Amino acid sequence: MFRDPPRALVRLSIFGGLSIILILITWKGSASLSYSWTPPISEFELKNISQKAKEYAENPVQAPYKSTFWEVGQRSRDLSQWLSKSDKVDSTSKVGRQLRDVTEITAQHLFPFLRNPPRNPGSKTPLSDLRHSFDRGSRGIVIPVGGGEQSVRFAGHLIVSLRKVLGCRLPIQIVYAGDDDLPKKDRDRIAELDGASDLEFLDILAIFDDTTLKLKDGGWAIKAFALLGSHFEEVILLDADAVFIQQPERLFAQKAYIEKGAFLFHDRLLWQHAFKERHEWWKDQIKEPSAEMNKSLVWTEDYAEECDSGVVVLNKARVSTLVGLLHVAWQNTYDVREEVTYRQGHGDKESWWLGLELGGSSYEFESHYGSMIGWGEGTGGNVTKVCSFVIAHTDEKGKLLWYNGSLLKNKRVDPDGYEVPEYWMMDGKWHKGRTKDDMSCMTDTEVLELTAEEKRVLRESIKIAKEVDIALKGTA
């Protein structure tokens, strides 16, 4: 064994060298140690960042807000870059601490709703605290519920349908704005429904100081904060009246979401050239449109509304996506929404893409504008028009995925009028109902019949919804 010491030493040296290389490769690939492979930013770069942050602090964004959306976006982009750098620097080092302090101060000046979090009012690092509250790698569904019995009822329909008809296994978080919004009795009524498993409740007022938000009576405004404040890292945000035809888990598998980290759905193509002032404002604030913006028919052909925010899918683990979400949330703070957001659009809808766009976040819409699902009209058995009160949406393969507006045929007129849709259309011409009590229709494209499986899902969802109605009435 020891007859040839030089050869043994050579072999030992080679083995040792390879071992060291493998250790280094493994170490470099470790997410927890990734900062060690990124050299700290230079003192010069940190000085420039600190100077810019000081300028922002000395010149805060103030009312009137209509002309400030672009500026908030530019500052958001800087914040996103600084956060990304901070994540790659040893947080215990002097430079790491200084950079973290700069990002925290900038974030709180830009987004005051981060200050004084009820869980830790004295915290100097509320953004960092919020990020650490996200369960790494977690995925879940968030449904804002509150404001009355209809919201409780539709949430019950949605939750039980997801569990018992579609077999959805994602955890669900119900978010509300204080006991007046969703009293404990109503929370218990939802939790006790047959099928309402893996369900939790979150009072958003325990996460964010309501001083600048006024979410108790804010309606749609709670949605952005529900998504932001949830402990899920990857979130599917749902309106309570959403109806799913496929499992919501499919949303996380869409290429658009995987690649961009933010997946949105289009509204109907309506009212071309009808909102001149709105479009002029968008053009003024979106000075450098992204590639996604340039694909928009609302942007390029002057249609009225871009987004159906009944479903929003975001990955908060991505820094740029998170900062874009902060911009969305800012648009839904009380003063901003009252002055601008809810005047330039219908509720929160347009704030989603606008915040991501201005904040420099990557995002993508479904490939088709809002589709129609409903009931056919025509002559001689030849269906040429499909009408209803809802908007349908498809997956990346062009298959029906979900629609808004509840399982009721017309939730405004008949609270007991359940009916399974028969037909749907995509990429046709929309004809808006004269009033909210009149159906809208689509024409000028192929009429498609729902498959047997799609009808089964909706038929069983309606059956379960009726059972939920009985259960809720028994506990009212």
Annotation keywords:
3 domains, 16 helices, alpha+beta, globular, 476 residues, six-stranded antiparallel β-sheet, 16 strands, seven-stranded mixed β-sheet, Spore Coat Polysaccharide Biosynthesis Protein SpsA, Chain A
Summarize this structure briefly:
The chain is of the alpha+beta class. It has helices at residues 5-29, 43-58, 69-87, 94-110, 126-132, 149-164, 184-191, 222-229, 255-260, 276-285, 291-294, 297-301, 319-331, 334-344, 349-358, 452-473, and strands at residues 135-144, 172-176, 199-203, 232-238, 243-244, 262-264, 311-315, 364-365, 372-379, 382-388, 392-394, 400-403, 423-425, 429-431, 440-443, 448-449.
Rg measurement, Å: 26 Å
Strand order of the largest sheet: 3-2-1-4-7-6-8
Strand residues, percent: 15-25%
What structural category characterises the helix and strand content? Answer: alpha+beta
Low-confidence stretches: 1-5, 18-38
**What proportion of the residues is helical, as a percent range?**
40-55%
How many structural domains in the coordinates?
3
Q: Within the CATH hierarchy, at the fold level, what is the topology of the largest domain?
A: Spore Coat Polysaccharide Biosynthesis Protein SpsA, Chain A
Q: What is the CA–CA distance across the termini? A: 86 Å
Give an account of the 3D structure.
With 476 residues, the chain is an alpha+beta fold. The chain has 3 domains: 43-127, no CATH class; 134-365, Alpha-Beta Complex (Spore Coat Polysaccharide Biosynthesis Protein SpsA, Chain A), CATH 3.90.550; 371-474, no CATH class. 41% of the residues lie in helices and 15% in strands. The protein is built from 16 helices and 16 strands. It has a 7-stranded mixed β-sheet with strand order 3-2-1-4-7-6-8. The protein has a 6-stranded antiparallel β-sheet with strand order 14-15-10-9-13-16, with no helix packed on it. It has a 3-stranded antiparallel β-sheet with strand order 5-12-11. α3 (69-87) packs antiparallel against α13 and α13 packs across α15. It starts with a helix and ends with a helix. The model is unreliable at 1-5 and 18-38 (pLDDT under 50). One of its GO terms (cellular component) is Golgi apparatus. InterPro entries: Alpha_mannosyltransferase, Nucleotide-diphossugar_trans. Keywords: Glycoprotein, Glycosyltransferase, Membrane, Signal-anchor, Transferase, Transmembrane, Transmembrane helix. Belongs to the MNN1/MNT family. It comes from Gibberella nygamai (Bean root rot disease fungus).
